[in-house]
Amino acid sequence: MAKFIQSANLFEVRSVLGKNIRTTKRYWEFIVKFKHAELENKLPEVLKTIQKAQFVYQDTEHKEIFLYYYKINKHWICAVCRHLSQDGFLVTAYLTAKSKRRGIKVWPKKK
Question: What SS3 string covers the chain?
């Protein structure tokens, strides 16, 4: 079972890539209010996307940016995260009809 830490103002999960990814309650509210209202009440699904992603792509231009994808019903949730040396944080998240699959596929690894 993936670890989930929640305090009054912080959410943190371990990604499929082994990074602790965090976001604050305030920043999550910003994402939902100003960027992606369709994600209201979907924080658990976004955290699950990071924990159990079906695909993860690394941006080719910005090597510290990773896109985590998880399919829920007919849509994909994409959680865009920035990796630092030991951990990382949520940049944004959104729903999409198709996984964009741009960049270098880093999860699951090719056999």
Answer: CCCEEECCCEEEEECCCCCEEEEEHHHHHHHHHHHCHHHCCCHHHHHHHHHCCCEEEECCCCCCEEEEEEEECCEEEEEEEEECCCEEEEEEEEEECCCCCCCEEEECCCC
